[in-house]
């Protein structure tokens, strides 16, 4: 479908790291706004005159990323932040994307945005560092044959716990959903988005992407029953609660559990026996962006081995960048098993994908009703 | 009455005076009216429209007539949220009144220069950001927090109490946040009470309790009602306190509405919930006006 003459040919010079944009455009326009073809980029675009606005989670990329991009490509980057995927989606849809060029988000949400035609398929040939990426990650960035985002981090969801405060290490999602008396009131679960339903769905042996109403209803029942035993719903500060000892077990992403482990060696991460998800966070370019050349330059700077390695070293999530992985120090992989010996385990979950409009509405309604119950 | 209408200037032509009389209210009221039209009336109209639409996948609405949201709101889950919100807001208001009345009374009886100091002290917490003040309660109340440290330290208990993330913590947060809004109107009302009336009541043989219930309280009722409404209204709609001090487990209607717009992307349902709150509040304000008129009305003739 996308093999013919629209494919841009590159005449790029032996490119200094990261200057993806000394390159050529697609043969011709034909951009009717609804095609799944990447938009034509202007090879002569003067990046130093382009400014892009990037929305990301707080502290989820190098603080000096704007300087890095400026230095490597000349483009100006402004950063804004969103707290959650839902936040990001609301920002993009609320304004039709006006005022934003690049967004960071998780796969289900980026997938939905791609289906809604709000983000732009990427022409990966224009990204010098695309080849650094593992195919397992780039494969899942494809929607209907086009690539819509650059995989940034990936990992899984499990139980982060204080080994010194629990009698027995948790092994099952039910340890969280139906805690022993000693742990009642000392566990937290995530309260939003797809991760709110993950423990219940997996405990019941269902897919994290299920759209089956009966399965979802069963999961809801389990969540309502679990609620009285929770300390709180917490999507962002659970590792702090473990450090203080306020909580003994929390639903957590592997990387954020590492933040706890870094402070207290008794904080450990387990992927429950029923299995979990493989989530991927990616970087996408908005269809409405007027500065796509700079947007590509930004993405290519992130995918540059050095920058991407920074991400793993500082944010403690696994990255799907083979060139960058070579730069990550061995000590770090030893200190944090999820980045080292247990990396495979972190990436063996069920790929979390978009469940479609109707099911997404149902997920939201269930979460609303569980929290309201 | 007559002496206050002199500002037109005697020598001016009557046309100018008339013009000026027309322009003055427009200039004075204009900004306020504009503000209300743009930021109150327009959103309320918009929300009214949303109630009858269908949910858009990414927020927003599809303009397609639907009454589903009205039937959904009668689901027991949501009715329970309304019940709990009203309950929590009511308890918070009652506590604020029980704490606020004696405080306002004491301030009103202070020597004048101390009154000002006391009133400033009541307002001072407002100078700190609301979120920071609420976060402070997390530090105080959590199981590893200062209050538990204190109780364990002085030997009251060995087991730490679960204080945070309970409905009680939410009430504490609401009372703390809005207490000044109770004290100030109460102070204004109490300060106006004529001492002679209280003396007369005592002279005629009424005890302190009877004087309070029969004279003081009715005379300060407008303050009680105003203060209560000023506390009740923001308490009912609050979503920060339940989220931070209730741990997301105690959901008030404010959280529910916020979540429909920002998380669930279900604007129509959020609009129905919001409109119910608006209607409740309008009824409250009508009640307040009624009480105030009953107490103050006859005196003005």
Automatic annotation (TrEMBL), chain A:
<keyword id="KW-0574">Periplasm</keyword>
<keyword id="KW-0732">Signal</keyword>
<protein>
    <submittedName>
        <fullName>Spermidine/putrescine transport system substrate-binding protein</fullName>
    </submittedName>
</protein>
<dbReference type="GO" id="GO:0019808">
    <property type="term" value="F:polyamine binding"/>
</dbReference>
<dbReference type="InterPro" id="IPR006059">
    <property type="entry name" value="SBP"/>
</dbReference>
<keyword id="KW-0813">Transport</keyword>
<dbReference type="GO" id="GO:0015846">
    <property type="term" value="P:polyamine transport"/>
</dbReference>
<dbReference type="GO" id="GO:0042597">
    <property type="term" value="C:periplasmic space"/>
</dbReference>
<dbReference type="InterPro" id="IPR001188">
    <property type="entry name" value="Sperm_putr-bd"/>
</dbReference>
<dbReference type="Pfam" id="PF13416">
    <property type="entry name" value="SBP_bac_8"/>
</dbReference>
TrEMBL record, chain B:
<feature type="transmembrane region" description="Helical">
    <location>
        <begin position="119"/>
        <end position="140"/>
    </location>
</feature>
<feature type="transmembrane region" description="Helical">
    <location>
        <begin position="86"/>
        <end position="107"/>
    </location>
</feature>
<protein>
    <submittedName>
        <fullName>Spermidine/putrescine transport system permease protein</fullName>
    </submittedName>
</protein>
<feature type="transmembrane region" description="Helical">
    <location>
        <begin position="269"/>
        <end position="291"/>
    </location>
</feature>
<keyword id="KW-1003">Cell membrane</keyword>
<feature type="transmembrane region" description="Helical">
    <location>
        <begin position="26"/>
        <end position="53"/>
    </location>
</feature>
<dbReference type="InterPro" id="IPR000515">
    <property type="entry name" value="MetI-like"/>
</dbReference>
<dbReference type="Pfam" id="PF00528">
    <property type="entry name" value="BPD_transp_1"/>
</dbReference>
<dbReference type="GO" id="GO:0005886">
    <property type="term" value="C:plasma membrane"/>
</dbReference>
<feature type="transmembrane region" description="Helical">
    <location>
        <begin position="169"/>
        <end position="190"/>
    </location>
</feature>
<feature type="transmembrane region" description="Helical">
    <location>
        <begin position="211"/>
        <end position="233"/>
    </location>
</feature>
<keyword id="KW-1133">Transmembrane helix</keyword>
<comment type="similarity">
    <text>Belongs to the binding-protein-dependent transport system permease family. CysTW subfamily.</text>
</comment>
<keyword id="KW-0472">Membrane</keyword>
<dbReference type="GO" id="GO:0055085">
    <property type="term" value="P:transmembrane transport"/>
</dbReference>
<keyword id="KW-0812">Transmembrane</keyword>
<keyword id="KW-0813">Transport</keyword>
<dbReference type="InterPro" id="IPR035906">
    <property type="entry name" value="MetI-like_sf"/>
</dbReference>
């Amino acid at each position: 479908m996308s093999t013919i003459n629209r494919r841009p040919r590159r005449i790029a010079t032996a490119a200094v790291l990261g200057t993806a944009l000394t390159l050529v455009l697609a043969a011709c326009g034909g951009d009717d706004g609804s095609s799944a073809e990447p938009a034509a980029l202007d090879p002569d675009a003067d990046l130093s005159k382009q400014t892009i606005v990037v929305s990301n989670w707080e502290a989820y990329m190098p603080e000096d990323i704007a300087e890095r991009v400026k230095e490597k490509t000349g483009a100006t980057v402004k950063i804004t932040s969103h707290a959650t995927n839902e936040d990001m989606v609301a920002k993009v849809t609320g304004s039709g994307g006006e005022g934003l060029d690049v967004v960071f988000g998780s796969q289900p949400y980026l997938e939905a945005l791609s289906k809604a035609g709000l983000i732009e398929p990427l022409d990966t040939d224009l990204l010098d560092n695309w080849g650094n990426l593992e195919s397992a990650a780039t494969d899942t960035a494809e929607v209907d044959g086009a690539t819509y985002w650059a995989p940034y981090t990936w990992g899984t969801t499990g139980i982060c716990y204080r080994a010194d405060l629990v009698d027995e290490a948790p092994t099952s999602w039910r340890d969280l959903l139906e805690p022993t008396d000693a742990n009642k009131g000392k566990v937290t679960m995530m309260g939003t988005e797809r991760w709110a339903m993950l423990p219940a769905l997996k405990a019941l042996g269902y897919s994290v992407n299920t759209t089956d109403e009966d399965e979802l209803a069963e999961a809801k029942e389990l969540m309502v029953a679990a609620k009285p035993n929770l300390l709180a719903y917490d999507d962002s500060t659970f590792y702090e609660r473990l450090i203080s000892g306020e909580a003994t077990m929390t639903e957590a992403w592997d990387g954020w559990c590492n933040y706890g482990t870094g402070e207290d060696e008794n904080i450990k991460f387990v992927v429950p026996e029923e299995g979990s998800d493989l989530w991927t966070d990616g970087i996408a370019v908005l269809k409405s962006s007027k500065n796509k050349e700079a947007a590509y330059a930004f993405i290519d700077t992130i995918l540059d081995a050095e920058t991407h390695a920074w991400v793993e070293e500082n944010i403690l999530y696994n990255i799907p960048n083979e060139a960058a992985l070579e730069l990550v120090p061995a000590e770090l992989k030893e200190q944090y098993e999820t980045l080292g010996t247990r990396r495979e385990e972190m990436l063996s979950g069920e790929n979390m994908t978009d469940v479609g409009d109707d099911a997404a509405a149902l997920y939201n309604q269930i979460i609303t009703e569980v929290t309201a119950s | 009455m007559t002496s206050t209408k002199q500002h037109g200037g005697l020598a001016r032509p009557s046309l100018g005076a008339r013009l000026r009389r027309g322009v003055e209210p427009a200039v004075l009221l204009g900004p306020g009216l504009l503000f209300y039209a743009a930021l109150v009336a327009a959103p309320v109209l918009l929300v009214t429209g949303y109630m009858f639409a269908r949910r858009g996948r990414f927020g927003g609405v599809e303009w397609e007539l639907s009454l589903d949201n009205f039937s959904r709101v009668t689901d027991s889950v949501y009715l329970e949220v309304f019940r709990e919100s009203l309950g929590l807001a009511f308890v918070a208001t009652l506590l604020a009144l029980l704490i606020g009345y004696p405080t306002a009374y004491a301030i009103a009886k202070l020597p004048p220069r101390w009154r000002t100091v006391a009133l400033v002290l009541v307002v001072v917490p407002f100078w700190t950001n609301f979120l920071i003040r609420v976060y402070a309660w997390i530090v105080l109340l959590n199981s590893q927090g200062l209050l538990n440290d204190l109780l364990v330290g002085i030997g009251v208990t060995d087991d730490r109490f679960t204080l945070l993330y309970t409905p009680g913590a939410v009430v504490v947060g609401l009372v703390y946040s809005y207490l000044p809004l109770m004290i100030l109107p109460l102070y204004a009302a109490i300060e106006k009470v004529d001492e002679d009336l209280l003396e007369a009541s005592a002279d005629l043989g009424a005890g302190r309790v009877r004087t309070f219930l029969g004279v003081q309280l009715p005379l300060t009722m407008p303050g009680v009602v105003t203060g209560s409404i000023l506390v009740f209204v923001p308490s009912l709609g609050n979503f920060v306190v339940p989220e931070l001090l209730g741990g997301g487990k105690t959901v008030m209607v404010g959280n529910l509405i916020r979540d429909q717009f920002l998380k669930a992307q279900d604007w129509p349902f959020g609009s129905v919930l919001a409109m119910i709150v608006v209607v409740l509040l309008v009824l409250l304000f009508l009640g307040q006006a009624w009480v105030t008129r009953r107490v103050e009305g006859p005196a003005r003739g």
